[in-house]
Write a structure and sequence with these properties.
The protein is α+β, with helices and mostly antiparallel strands. It has helices at 2-19, 28-38, 40-60, 119-124, 127-186, 192-227, 248-252, 262-283, 332-398, 404-439; strands spanning 24-26, 66-75, 81-85, 95-99, 104-117, 235-237, 288-301, 314-324. The strands form three sheets. Strands 2-5-7-8 form a four-stranded antiparallel sheet, with no helix packed on it. Strands 1-6 form a two-stranded parallel sheet. The chain has a two-stranded antiparallel sheet with strand order 3-4. Helix 8 packs antiparallel against helix 9. The protein is elongated, with a radius of gyration of 42 Å. Mean pLDDT is 87; it is low at 1-20.
Length: 449
């Protein structure tokens, strides 16, 4: 019997272990990497970049030789009449009406054209690199937004989990207090009201715990959506808040370098692209030169049998240059150039406003960061003091030196202090996040700070 008992127990333990859902530990850097890899906005930015490259190749095709072939066959039931001078046929004066050609006519040709000089295209050439830079900057901006959004949800989830942990700890303390009060009631040292008051306080915390559990679930699902993690896969977040505020010296040294922010560089590239387009428009008034060569064959027949023997085909060929000189376009080019100048002035106004807005954002983010850091330190001291008072009063209550009202008051003060402390921890985290965003250093979040 014993020989079968041990294998059965081992198999049961293994099965039970496999049945336990294993949660996936997710750190902040991993969540950020997953969200970048899963971001639809970033994938669309890359597709836009690919589309830009395709449009550039399409534009370059105009600089290559253009080859066209034309073939046509016509049947003329009535040949056109032409008037020839009579002296061509050695007849006196006037004109003679005659028909030329035959009813069936065939012609085919191949024409090759090569653009030799186009000032507008030459001036537009630098726009390729500027456009690439624009799309790269847009991708950087989108990535920063994805990082900021994911980090915000990550911190909010951690905050709610910490609040849930504090509530669970308070419920455990109240449950122990309730058992103690019930024991004192059974021994005649307490009144029923004491037990009921503890029970009411515990019930209120249990309602708060249910709301927090629902909030944690919703935030985790949001984070899974951003990171592309299946909803049926359980996750647990790695806690990096053991020593909040320890990194404050690093963030206090951050400064605003406006010209290195993505928003500033985007507007600068737009101005540069606008100037290139304006110069290209002005280049359209310069004549265009192209070369061409054409070759073909033609034939005329009395019937449709063009490939009959002893029927002649006649060749033709031509080469040359052609110059296209714009003389008057109804002031279209001038109006378009003026419109581009207006657009550039608008972008310059956006650039000026951006400078003021970024300075304001940096000042406010810095102020919130310093305030959050100071409040965090104060709240940490307040929580430690509240815990010390609650522990001392709990001992005094067991000794009968204080009333239950005093102890419940201390427990409530400790619960509020812990709640405010964990809220402030993540207010500080979000303040750091906003400071990084204001200074254009959102990418530092990837380091897991």
């Amino acid at each position: 019997m014993k020989s079968y008992f041990l294998p059965i127990c081992c198999a049961w333990i293994v099965t039970a272990a496999q049945a336990q859902p294993v949660s996936r530990a997710v750190s902040l850097p991993e969540a950020l990497r997953l969200s970048i890899a899963n971001s639809t906005a970033l994938k669309k930015n890359q597709l836009d970049r690919d589309a830009l490259e395709n449009r550039m190749k399409e534009g370059k095709s105009a600089l290559l030789p253009q080859v066209n072939a034309r073939f046509g066959m016509d049947y003329l039931p009535g040949l056109p009449t032409t008037f020839l001078p009579a002296n061509v046929l050695d007849e006196p004066g006037g004109y003679i009406a005659t028909t030329l050609g035959q009813p069936w006519q065939f012609a085919g040709s191949v024409r090759v054209e090569q653009l030799v000089f186009d000032e507008a295209a030459r001036r537009m050439a630098p726009a390729a690199n500027v456009s690439r830079s624009l799309y790269d900057l847009l991708a950087d901006k989108t990535e920063s937004e994805v990082l900021f959004q994911t980090a915000s949800v990550f911190y909010q989830t951690l905050q709610t989990e910490k609040l849930l942990g504090a509530v669970n700890a308070n419920i455990a303390r109240l449950e122990a207090l309730e058992r103690n009060a019930q024991l004192q009631l059974d021994n005649g040292y307490a009144v029923p009201t004491d037990v009921k008051r503890v029970r009411v306080a515990r019930t209120n915390l249990e309602s708060q715990r249910y709301n927090l559990q629902t909030g944690v679930q919703a935030l985790q699902q949001t984070l899974q959506f951003l990171c592309g993690i299946p909803f049926e896969e359980a996750i647990s977040l790695s806690d990096d808040s053991a020593t909040p505020g320890a990194d404050s010296a690093r963030w206090q040294t951050l400064s605003l370098d406006l010209e290195n922010t993505v928003e500033h560089r985007l507007l600068q590239r737009q101005i540069e692209l606008n100037r290139i387009q304006t110069r290209s428009l002005r280049g359209e008034i310069v004549p265009k030169i192209s070369a061409y060569a054409t070759a073909g064959i033609l034939a005329q027949r009395t019937d449709a049998n063009f490939f009959a023997e002893r029927q002649r085909w006649y060749g033709l060929a031509a080469v040359g240059f052609q110059v296209e000189v714009p003389l008057f376009d109804g002031f279209r080019n001038r109006r378009k150039t003026a419109g581009m100048v207006i657009e550039r002035r608008k972008i310059e106004e956006d650039l000026r406003l951006l400078g003021q807005a970024k300075n304001l954002e940096f000042l406010q983010a810095g102020g919130r960061f310093r305030g959050a850091l100071q409040t965090l330190r104060t709240q940490a001291e307040n929580t430690a003091l509240a815990r010390e008072i609650a522990e001392k009063l709990a001992l005094q209550y067991k000794e009968g030196a204080i009333s239950l009202t005093d102890l419940l008051g201390a427990q409530t003060a400790l619960a509020e202090a812990e709640t405010q402390y964990w809220q402030q921890v993540f207010h500080y985290k979000l303040a750091v996040l906003n400071l990084l965003k204001a200074t254009g250093n959102t990418g530092l979040i990837m380091q897991g700070e």
